[in-house]
Amino acid sequence: MGNGVREGQVDSRRQDVEPAVSAHLPPEGTQEKKKVLNSLMSGALAGAVAKTAVAPLDRTKIMFQGESRWLSQNALSLLIYRTYLNEGFWSLWRGNSATMVRVIPYAAIQFCAHEEYKQLLGSYYGFQGKALTPFPRFIAGSLAGTTAAMLTYPLDMVRARMAVTPKEMYSNIVHVFIRISREEGLKTLYRGFTPTILGVIPYAGLSFFTYETLKKLHADHSGKLQPSPPERLLFGACAGLIGQSASYPLDVVRRRMQTAGVMGHTYSSILLTMQEIIREEGLIRGLYKGLSMNWVKGPIAVGISFTTFDLTQILLRKLQHGTNVER
């Protein structure tokens, strides 16, 4: 009997302790929801900050890619200056509202999807809780970029149109959708979709792969778990340089197909578009037009994007951890 009483007392104590401990630990489902929400918020902010920072260069690049004649770097600088003189300083950010409408959901989906794909691939390959090996690391990035591009493509089409047309042609984002749908058909909203997906696979795959690999190499050699913000910017810049250089010809093809309706061209397929560009402008001068600008714009944008995402994630986790402690 003595033993029975003691066992009962132990059991009652255990019952008292367990609810007290579990009360401080959020359910697993709640933790997963918070993680997804954090990724979405961090990704949205990362995309908005990065794209706003390089918006003037981005608009000029789209105009540059849409030109069928070769422009030198001096001509490119003059193009920016002429746009400033003719349309004003804020015209350099023309189309940025459309960019924000696209890039915020795009970046939010891409970064969140990347975190989820890393987790799924980690479970599949048996790397749960550890860094992925190179091939799954590349696949996670490619899948994340493809997912985001598929869900937000019409917004990219609208942004391209607003960037290459005078402001009198389209008054706002909704007007672009209405005019394109009425005058050119709904299918036009997906013109250039195939080269976009083909381009985003190496671009997103190599970008995420390079950034994650550089962070891992840094941790292995320095012994520090987290790189500093300047190091993150440098790793992101390298990622952007490699990713955009690899996918650039398809980016040119995509822009030509998107802006064909207002630039006096008719491009029906990727191969025919490439053939026409090469025939009229040459291989390098056509398919790599504006690449030197991308070597400035791309690393800056990707570096800011990755750094903003990581630092926002860290900040949100700290805030939530502090809230949990207070509770």
From TrEMBL:
Gene3D superfamilies: Mitochondrial carrier domain (1.50.40.10). Solcar repeats lie at residues 34-120, 132-217, 227-315. InterPro entries: GDC-like, MCP, MCP_dom_sf, MCP_transmembrane. The keyword Signal does not apply. It is a multi-pass membrane protein. The keyword Transcription regulation does not apply. Residues 8-17 have a biased composition (Basic and acidic residues). One of its GO terms (cellular component) is mitochondrial inner membrane. It is found in: Mitochondrion inner membrane. Belongs to the mitochondrial carrier (TC 2.A.29) family. This is Mitochondrial coenzyme A transporter SLC25A42. It comes from Rhynochetos jubatus (kagu). The gene is Slc25a42.
